[in-house]
Design brief:
By secondary structure, the chain is α/β, with parallel strands linked by helices. It has 15 helices and eight strands. Its main location: nucleus. This is RNA exonuclease 4.
């Protein structure tokens, strides 16, 4: 049994033990524990990412009690613990998704342009969500310079709303056919990059001025989902505020324990249960994978807080140095109750 003093100096979120209360306060000041962290369904330990939670449950040195329950009642995709093996079987049939069967529409997209981009005149219930993926060919003397040659956008229901090949602004020296499936004739009469850039920029902003989108409320501007969007938008020469971007390569709960990005291929296999990018890569398939990952993260149920971010003005003094004595008199649970997240949880998009 742990002594009362040890329990008092133990973090209520990650269970780290400290020798002195002041060290626990310092830990809480920098850990940003919150209700939005992935949490073990058995012992309630908070983990920084789902990969950390996976290691806690089935890694090389798991907590045995948690491992035993997970082995019989744990979903290997969302890592939830169900009430019974039967409940697990029913849950996992819904949790494991199948690969994309995108039929005639996507196959026709291989022929060229599909454009259903529109600017909405009115407000819908919350921001619309779209996913974007680009495929690159190579430029430069060694073919290593990425040039956007194909772009696809889908809506939240996995409907393709834009697809085009892109006429490159500089000569292509490597078509990377083994992964892109792109041939020179596909790009010869394709839409120029400048026109693609303008169409996508206008569609994303949806009639809102950039200044308004950069504020806390984007109005009618669309939420943009993708994987490695910084690179895709750079190659498209599209500027879009970070506040409206949901990037599965940079979302802390989906990153490695080393805080590096996971590949979209890995995330899809681990969290959705099917394989992608096994040969020639279709941007529609990647769009669907990123959208499904986003929706899975958005649909998580976390306790609502009026001010959920550590950066919110109302929370900036929660662990201020001048409160040190007061904080040291708090219990670990009381400190956890005032701790807030240092990242924007996607569940807040459904608020």
């Amino acid at each position: 049994m742990e002594s009362a003093e040890n329990l008092r100096n133990k973090c209520a979120a990650c269970f780290r033990q400290f020798n002195r209360m002041e060290h626990l306060v310092d830990h809480m000041r920098s850990a940003y524990h919150s209700v939005h962290e992935p949490t073990c369904g058995v012992c309630k330990k908070h983990c920084r990412s789902f990969e950390s939670l996976r290691e806690h449950l089935i890694g090389p040195l798991p907590k045995q009690e948690c491992k035993n329950l997970f082995n019989t009642r744990g979903c290997k995709f969302c890592l939830a613990i169900l009430d019974s093996p039967y409940a697990l079987r029913i849950h996992q049939e819904r949790c494991q998704l199948s690969g994309v069967n995108y039929g005639i529409l996507a196959r026709l997209a291989n022929l060229g342009l599909h454009d259903s981009l529109t600017i909405d005149s009115g407000f819908s219930r919350g921001p619309q969500v779209v996913a974007l993926t680009c495929k690159m060919v190579g430029g430069g003397s060694d073919g290593s310079l990425d040039i956007c040659a194909r772009v696809c956008i889908i809506d939240e229901n996995e409907n393709m709303i834009f697809h085009t090949y892109v006429k490159p602004p500089i000569p292509v020296t490597n078509y990377r056919y083994e992964t892109t499936g792109i041939r020179p004739e596909y790009l010869r009469d394709a839409m120029p990059l400048r026109q693609v850039q303008r169409r996508i920029q206008d569609f994303l902003c949806n009639g809102e001025p950039m200044g308004k989108i950069r504020s806390l409320k984007g109005g009618k501007a669309r939420i943009l989902v993708g994987h490695g969007l910084d690179h895709d938008l750079d190659r498209l020469q599209v500027e879009y505020p970070a506040i409206m971007i949901r990037d599965t390569s940079k979302y802390p709960p989906l990153m490695k324990t080393s805080k590096l990005s996971n590949s979209l291929k890995y995330l899809t296999q681990a969290y959705l249960g099917y394989d992608i990018q096994t040969g020639i890569q279709d941007p529609y398939v990647d769009c669907v994978a990123t959208m499904r990952l986003y929706l899975r993260m958005r649909n998580q149920v976390h306790r609502r807080e009026d001010y959920p971010l550590a950066s919110d003005p109302q929370n900036r003094n929660n662990f201020a140095p001048w409160r040190q004595s007061e904080l040291e008199r708090m219990s670990p649970e009381e400190m956890l109750a005032i701790s807030r997240s240092d990242y924007y949880c996607w569940c807040l998009d459904s608020a």
